[in-house]
């Protein structure tokens, strides 16, 4: 028996796996590449962020603002959502942080001389801090995030 070949998704599409559902989105085509995503607390929605700071909502994710259209010193490279899903942080490759909704600002590496660029971030479980990670594995802690 020969198995049927799986369809290859388009390069600009989101493909759900397991119990994930593909919900309606807020905008279909980003102007710049998508570089990060975060899920809503109930797992029924998610946000995508593009390198220009544009935010795209899917499922039950709400829009709380974006950096899209704003002049950025460096491109956005990642995001994290707040524990209640009513906000999110964006991080740029220079370590700059942008807050939206109920996400609080706890500091940033923006303006600091970095050996390697920041490539991602994660929120602490209580949302009162976050970690930034650089491409060399360096970790930067802010708020109640422990090193």
Helix content: under 10%
Strand count: 9
Main beta-sheet annotation? 3 strands, antiparallel
Computed over alpha carbons, the radius of gyration is 16 Å
End-to-end separation in angstroms reads: 53 Å
Instruction: Kindly report the spatial arrangement of strands forming the biggest sheet.
Output: 1-2-3
Topology as H/E string? EEEEEEEEE
**SS element count, helices:** 0
Rough outline: globular
Whole-number mean pLDDT = 87
Strand content: 25-35%
Low-pLDDT residue spans: 1-6
Structural class: mainly beta
Structure overview:
This protein has 147 residues and is mainly β. The protein has no helices and nine strands. It has strands at residues 34-39, 45-50, 55-59, 76-81, 87-92, 97-101, 118-123, 129-134, 139-143. The strands form three sheets. The chain has a three-stranded antiparallel sheet, with no helix packed on it. Strand 2 (45-50) and strand 3 form a beta hairpin. The termini are far apart. The model is unreliable at 1-6 (pLDDT under 50).
Short description:
0% of the residues lie in helices and 35% in strands.
What is the topological layout?
Blueprint: E1 34-39, E2 45-50, E3 55-59, E4 76-81, E5 87-92, E6 97-101, E7 118-123, E8 129-134, E9 139-143
Antiparallel strand pairs: 1-2, 2-3, 4-5, 5-6, 7-8, 8-9
What tags apply to this protein structure?
147 residues, mainly beta, three-stranded antiparallel β-sheet, 0% helix
């Amino acid at each position: 028996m020969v198995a049927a070949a799986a369809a290859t998704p388009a390069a600009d599409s989101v493909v759900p796996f397991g119990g994930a559902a593909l919900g309606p989105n807020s905008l279909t085509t980003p102007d710049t590449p998508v570089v990060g995503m975060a899920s809503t607390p109930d797992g029924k929605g998610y946000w995508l962020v593009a390198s220009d700071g544009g935010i795209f909502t899917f499922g039950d994710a709400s829009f709380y603002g974006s950096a899209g259209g704003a002049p950025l010193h460096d491109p956005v490279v990642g995001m994290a959502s707040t524990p209640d899903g009513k906000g999110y942080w964006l991080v740029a490759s220079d370590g700059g942080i942008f807050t939206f909704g109920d996400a609080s600002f706890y500091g940033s590496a923006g303006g600091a001389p970095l050996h390697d660029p920041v490539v991602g971030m994660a929120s602490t479980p209580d949302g009162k801090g976050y970690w930034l990670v650089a491409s060399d594995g360096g970790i930067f802690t802010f708020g109640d995030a422990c090193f």
